[in-house]
Amino acid sequence: MIAAAFARLRGWEGLLLALLVVIVVVNMAHSPYYLGVGNIINLFQLEIEKIIVALMMTLIIINGEIDLSVASVMGMSACVMAWSFRAGVPLPWAMLAAMASGVAAGLINGFWIAYVGLPSLAVTLAGLIGYRGVARILVQDRAIGDYPGWFNALGQQGLVGPLTLSIIIFLAMFAVLGLVLHGAALGRLVYVIGNNLQAARYSGVRVRRVKMTLFVASAVVAALAGLLYAARLGSVRGDMAQGFELDIITIVLLGGVSIFGGSGNLLGVGLSILVILNLRNGMGLADITGNTQTSVIGALLILSVLAPNIAQAIHIRWKGRET
Amino acid sequence: MTWLRRRIRPEQIREFSLLLLIVVAVLIFGSAIDNYYTSRTFNRIASSVMIITVVAVGQTLVVLTRNIDLSVGSIVGCTAYVAGVRIAADNGLPAIVPVLIAVALGAAMGAINGVLVAWGRVPSIIVTLGTLAIFRGLLVDYSGARTVTTDSLPPWLVDLPRLDLFTLAGLHVKVMVALALAIVIAFQLATSYLTFARQFYALGSNPDAADLIGLPTRRIVLTAFVLSGALSGLAGFMTLARFGNITVEAGRGLELEVVAAAVVGGVNIFGGSGTVIGAMLGGVMIGTLEQSLLRLQINEFWRDAVMGLLILLAVASDAVILKRLRALWARADLEMIARSAPRTGEAP
Amino acid sequence: MREYVLAGAALLAVGMLSPGAHAQVKATPGKAENMVLLPKFLGILPFDQAHRGAEEAAAELKNPAKLQYLGPTPENSVAGQIEIVTNATTQGVNAIMISNNSGDQIVPAAKKAQAAGIKVVTWDSPIPSAEGEDVFVAQVDFTQTGRVMADMALKIMGPEGGKFAILSASPDAANQNAWIAAMQEALKDPKYAKLQQVGIVYGNDQSELSYNQALALVDKYPGIKLIMAPTSVGIVAAAKAMQDEGLCNKVKVSGLGVPKEMLAYTKNGCAPEFALWSFVDLGYLTYYTAYMLATGEIKAEPGQSFTAGRLGNYTITKDPTRKAGLRVLMGPFSIYDASNVEAAAK
């Protein structure tokens, strides 16, 4: 067990961990504000909705699929909530309606992918455009705000000590999904299907049901993240969360999850989240923003795969010379 | 039936079904929009699709090798801007210079992607997600927020989008549209008949087998990325000509449209199958939907939702039609086997 | 009777203004104030010009602390602006100058900044509810923007009037929405009775979509004589589209544009007239306002008057275009046509 954990640390996760340590040390040396409790909370809060969705996206990609519609579902859910609230529905019911819209989006995605057999890239690309459209229809050119104080407080203030509701949800989801993916039967099936779809089918795995479950779960989590985003910002517009899908997928891929499915784990994604968040925060505190920041993250993404490959190649050549 | 089956490959069935869908869409829009069947509508769709098509051809090559190129939007932006700055500085340059600058720069950027993927063994989605950000970042830094303005460009370049190659039955075929079409045809022919180009398919269908039989897999992948970059560069030049005004934002988000065109056009995102013509038809399908929806008297805010629904319908009905046609083909196969079986039995 | 009331109101107004009027505050140079200039996003000309103006003011005021020009990327504008405001709060800067692209979504972050003692000055685009904002430096009066656009439409279409359509930025763009609303209000004046607005479309500030939307307008509404585009991206794309289609004689383009980008189209008649203000001056005035608020030389209260270097005297007033909030009004508009566009483009 310990040996296995050790072996893992020498692999991808080890690399991410080393990277994280370097980033943390540099940040500490560079900014006196970095280790403040307020800053640590901010560091999570500023990207919290993306990282919540990234956890579920991990399962989808390990399963060999992709969900490009998540950001649009986030927007749609927030807009359904805002529109119902503006129409006079009490906020708790409006939030429920928003979650229902998430379930509906998940069912639609899942139906076409799992039961009709269309590629998830195509279906969720249509969803990316279509669900954003629903958000636009509902909210149009307005910005809908003025929610009750408790709603804004949920998104903006600490619930347990300095920990906000969103951070608690993230931690809980990380634990639950970790158990599901690495301890439960469903988790094994996610890997099996991602590794070899045909073999899974022939060995009697209910592929459709697993895929349906994953896509509904993904959309529901996205809908929840949309509500949390609305609560954090206190106001809803039609363009909420637009373009988040690329950031979310970047986090998952840096976590060592293969885009072709079948490999990767939640620990890696957890470390990738810490790496990206700390890096962004450090750069923000060093007044590095905009395209420079995205370029650095892009370069990191490439280098983190390239560097070990080069090291390995050198290692092999070195060995070859010795013998 | 047999005659048909012998002459037509499964890939062509897909293209045929997509063509059918485009015709259906055009008929539906034609009945809903006044003055739809005019050369103007043709022009609108053709000009709006031409840039995406050129990029989609390159994307198809990359996707065939089981890779993806998400950096195309940034390459288009960089090449449009750099070519624009160069020609703006010296209006007397021959026309070929900005084209060459754009294509060469695009090819170089594609080569960076290709080397990282083929020799660095980094998954292409990671490489190109990275270079998507890096290329754009370099452009923003390099430009210092300056804009290439129409006024600084030579007249021939500004007038290029208006230039007709020929007029056929009232349809004005623009030079740039014809160029895009020529590229599609050239690459379609090459990928169908040239041995080297067939290797894209071989590699994508089974990378391990391709390696085993000694195909130069790395060189093939690099070639695909270089071509994708070069074609994006050409698209960058076309963007410069079409819009005249180039900010550092040019081409942003194009990657999604291009991937959408390829996916709707039946290019399998996991490699090995799909055609250049298919990708073009995918682009035409999306362009037709987009341009026609703009003209419908529907609320501005409904457009995205309708667009998403239509793309889903297109992909779904394409799958259904394809399934039916395949079944038809399979039945014809069975019949032929059944008919030929006794004869083989009688043979000595 | 009516005149009497008006005179009374005028007196009252003067009375309100007078405490500031006799105390025209001048800035004390050389104080170290850490200030952040935050545009909607990086990489386009107008914001860069504002940055230049702010640097000019910073040099005049000999602020030893370096001006930080920080901005998000366009596709991540809302989340990025919130991130930058939050990090600036953590760092404890003295003033943040925001061209707000996030509507009221910036409010929680801006309020936290204010709670930490940071002066929050908006420029170019305000916080709609004015919560979390000390003062808004307005480039022009938003009501006047509506009138200027209506006047340009009338001038281009002539006394016989006709139909025109609007090409806006995104549906969420607060400035454009406010300007369009102001124009629609202005059009109620009988002077503009013959001008008929037939539709609004959105080009999302992307060249491609704006270009296609402009062409679709011509198809959708045959006979329109003008496309009014209150966005610098949309107006150029529309002008190029009309030029490419050879429609410049029938459909003119007008709105808000950058002279350098519009030069070709104004000279060839596709866009005979358009308007804008100086972004350099806007950045300059914003810096002065924020600096003096940060040093405490002026307070964010109506009636405070100050001198902003080469631009002269300004007074903080209630913002009449929003329900709440204060503003400093820069103005005026510059109207560009073939006679002056070349000089402005230099």
First-residue to last-residue Cα separation of chain A:
34 Å
Distance between the termini of chain C: 53 Å
Major sheet characteristics of chain A: 2 strands, antiparallel
Q: Name the largest protein-protein interface in this structure.
A: A-B, 45 and 42 residues
Radius of gyration of chain A equals 21 Å
The sequence of SSEs of chain C as H and E is HEEHEHEHEEHEHEHEHEHEHEEEEEH
Oligomer: heterotrimer
Tell me the major beta sheet of chain C: 7 strands, mixed
Strand order of the largest sheet of chain A: 1-2
Ranges of chain C where pLDDT stays below 50 over 5 or more residues in a row are 1-22
Report the principal-axis shape of chain C: elongated
Name the helicity range of chain A.
over 70%
Class by SSE composition of chain A: mainly alpha
User: How much of the residues of chain A is beta strand, in percent?
Assistant: under 5%
User: Could you list the spans of chain A in which at least 5 consecutive residues all have pLDDT below 50?
Assistant: none
Q: Given the structure, what is the number of helices of chain A?
A: 15
Strand content of chain C: 15-25%
State the total count of DSSP E strands of chain A: 2
Given helix and strand content, the structural type of chain C is alpha/beta
Fraction of helical residues of chain C: 40-55%
Could you explain the architecture of this structure?
- The complex is a heterotrimer of chains A (323), B (348) and C (346).
- By secondary structure, chain A is an all-alpha fold.
- Helices cover 77% and strands 2% of the residues of chain A.
- A two-stranded antiparallel ribbon of chain A has the order 1-2.
- In chain A, 54% of the residues are buried.
- With 348 residues, chain B is mainly α.
- Chain B has one domain (2-336): ABC transporter involved in vitamin B12 uptake, BtuC, CATH 1.10.3470.
- Chain B is 74% helix and 3% strand.
- Chain B contains 14 helices and two strands; from the N terminus they run H-H-H-H-H-H-H-E-E-H-H-H-H-H-H-H.
- In chain B, strands 1-2 form a two-stranded antiparallel sheet.
- In chain B, strand 1 (164-168) and strand 2 form a beta hairpin.
- Mean pLDDT of chain B is 88; it is low at 344-348.
- The longest helix of chain C has 20 residues, at 2-21.
- Chain C is elongated.
- The chains are: A mainly alpha (323), B mainly alpha (348), C alpha/beta (346).
- Chains in contact: A-B, A-C, B-C.
- Chain A binds chain B through residues 112, 116-119, 121-123, 125-134, 136-137, 140, 238, 246, 249-250, 253-254, 258-260, 290-292, 294-295, 297-302, 305-306, 309-310, and chain B through 116, 120-123, 125-127, 129-134, 136-138, 140-141, 256, 259-260, 263-264, 268-270, 299, 301-309, 311-312, 315-316, 319.
